[in-house]
Structure formats: structure tokens, C-alpha cells
TrEMBL record:
Pfam families tied to this protein: GST_N_2
Taxonomic placement: Bacteria, Pseudomonadati, Pseudomonadota, Alphaproteobacteria, Rhodobacterales
Entry-linked InterPro entries: Glutathione-S-Trfase_C_sf (IPR036282), Glutathione_S-Trfase_N (IPR004045), Thioredoxin-like_sf (IPR036249)
Protein name (Swiss-Prot/TrEMBL): Glutathione S-transferase
Superkingdom of origin: Bacteria
Domain GST N-terminal: 3-84
Organism of this sequence: Thalassococcus lentus
Amino acid sequence: MSYKLILGDYAYSSWSLRGWLLFHRFGIPAKMEFVDFNSIGVAEQLKKYSPARTVPTAICEDGAILWDSLALAEEIAEREPQAGLWPEQPALRGLGRSLASEMHSGFSSLRNECPMNLRVAYSSFVPSESTQADVERLDEVWSYALEKSGGPWLCGRYSIADVFYAPVAGRIAGYGIGMSDTSQDYVARHLADPAFRRWRAMGMVRGDTLPWYARDYDTRPWPGPAAKAAMAVDEGRAENETCPYSGGSVNHLMEMDGRIFGFCNAFCRDKTVADPEAWPDFMKLV
């Protein structure tokens, strides 16, 4: 079955991250289309997919339009049972559905006070009382789930529940919010997840910097795995003759460890420069 997936900005759209992980993390192919957060409203850009008004929105091969993230996740889980989006064990599946539903409807103070911004990490944020209550609830449900399932993810293996909490992990890390060791380890697991790293790398190089997502706090380095040093270059002879992603001819170059690699376009190059080790197809060249 084929899908079209409409998403928003890589760096700022937390629900788009969920939609992308739902397909990418489970190996479900989808053709992606993006709306521009620095243009007219999202609903206006989605008019041709009415009644959808938000991202992510998925368009299925049979014409079904899925515009609510939880409904999208559940529908894709039914349409793609081989992908294993939910655990087979009923108790763990029920746990995962409860976790995803609470994320879908709750934690409004944390979401409002700490908008997702994967381009920056803060060091001087102090949560309000209501946001601290949200954090304590997260600590409670994460600790419970990880104990019940045995980890390393909320339902044992990675599932829709983890898809829904991935942007929350980005917020906890990005705003430097303290949690228990168990929860901090869970946050670190997301930040080290190659799929999360790929999404963030793309967010570092595509899209405008949107000032309305910025907050006036002291900043610090991103707390996830440090990216290997690399840079774009204009001259040199690439070791590879074709782009590691598209197989297209080489037109853009990057340097890493004194070696030159080539890519078919600037985005392929720049997302790799942002975090080379996040991209398995590139690392095969290395």
C-alpha cells in the first residue's frame, strides 16, 4: 500500500516528528510533502486535502485521509500489521495505548511552555508549577512502563508509545529539565536513536529559523550524541561516484577526516554534515 505523508517543519513541528517516525522507524514507505511554517497558515496549505487542517496528515492509496495523529497511528497499525507498531502481548499493547492516548490529550503546560526546538538547548529554564506537575506525571508513567515491560522502550521494544513521546524527550533534553535516572536514561535513548538523529540533522539544515519558537534562556550544547566533525567544501575529488542516498551523480561535496565525499544535491550533503554517523547509507562509504 502506498501513502503520502504531509509534514511541517523538521526543527519545530513535534507532531510531524511523530508522523515521520511512525513511517520511517517501522520501514513503511511514504512519499513526503511539506507545508511551510513561515508561509500562510497550515490549514490554508492543506485545502486540497480537506478536511485535514493539521500536520501530520496521511493520504492512503484508497483515498482515506488521516489527519489526527492518534487515529493515524492506529489506522496504519491495522493496515500494516507486519510492521509491528504495537506489541503482540495484550497487556503491553494496552499499556502502550494508554500511554499514547495520555500524551495525545495531556501535558498541555509542558507543551505550551516548552515548544519543541531541536536547533537549540537551554541551561537556565525553570519550569512553572504546572509544567513541573506534568514532568512528575511523565516520570511516574515512564518509570511504571519501563518496569512493567523491562525496557529498553516503554513497551519493551520500540512502539507507537515511543513515537508519541519522542518529541517530549526532545523537550526534556532541550530545556534541561531534571527527572529521575530512569526517565533521563529513557530521554537519552531517544536522543541516541538513529532515526531521531536523522530527523534532527534535517531540522538543522532545512527550513527558516522561526523566532517565535525561541525563548530567552541561556543556551548550551545539544545534550545528545556529539556529531562527528564535517564540513561542506567547494573543491576536491569525491571518493564515491554516486550519491549514497539517491544513486544520482555527484554535484556537492563534503569533507570529513581529510576525505571528500559527494552527494547529488545540497540537502543530501548538508544533512550528512550535520550528523554524519546518523546516516547508515553514508557510513557504508566511510
